[in-house]
Amino acid sequence: xxxxRVRVVEDALDANNTIARANRADFDRAGVxxxxxxxxxxxxxxxxxxxxxxxLGDVRVGVLEGDVQGSLDADRIADAHVPVxxxxxxxxxxxxxxxxxxxxxxxxxxxxxxxxxLLVVENVGNLVCPAEFRIGxxxxxxxxxxxxxxxxxxxxxxxxxxxxxxxxxxxxxxxYVDFDLDRFHYHLDAVNPGVRRVLTSAxxxxxxxxWREWLVQVAVRGRARV
Length: 226
Ligand code: MG
Prior knowledge:
The structure is a single chain. With 226 residues, the chain is of the alpha/beta class. It has one domain: 3-Layer(aba) Sandwich (Rossmann fold). The chain is built from eight helices and seven strands. It has a seven-stranded parallel β-sheet with strand order 3-2-4-1-5-6-7, with helices on both faces. β2, α3 and β3 form a beta-alpha-beta unit. α1 runs parallel beside α4. Magnesium ion binds next to α2.
């Protein structure tokens, strides 16, 4: 019984990877580099995007917003004058807690891919499932806020291991929370040794230049590949 279940999960992930490769081929054809941005709910993904995407130099950026329902985040991104498409997992996709390749594929016709260099996909807030589903992205990044606790890399290792960049956000709250930055770095290195990390506060603006620079580098790197 247990073995059958494992088999089903593997098949589902294989099917997802096949669609992810098709997405990736479409992105490559359009010359778009894709960042899959993940985090727990409330870590500050949308705030970071709001504060930085309007100012990426000559990089033309768009956003695909993943949420269970509603368009609150897409409305905020649209206010920054960045092209944005909202993708809801309810009701069409059963209210899933993550985006998968098929959901992203359903949104592709709505995205102005030919006019973009960089697409940021803001995944559904969740530290577990999003890390398991490739969507056709080039890179994965995550946001961990200091309000969540410094032990999270040990509790959700797959998420922290899957990412090329870890943004540590809300550092303006460090004096008020029991978050030990050294301990966080230590735990992070235990699951993803030496992974690049950027300390930010979307509120005060600290570290946002570095985050913005990383996005530009990712776009330039993608451009060089095409
Ligand atoms: Mg958000």
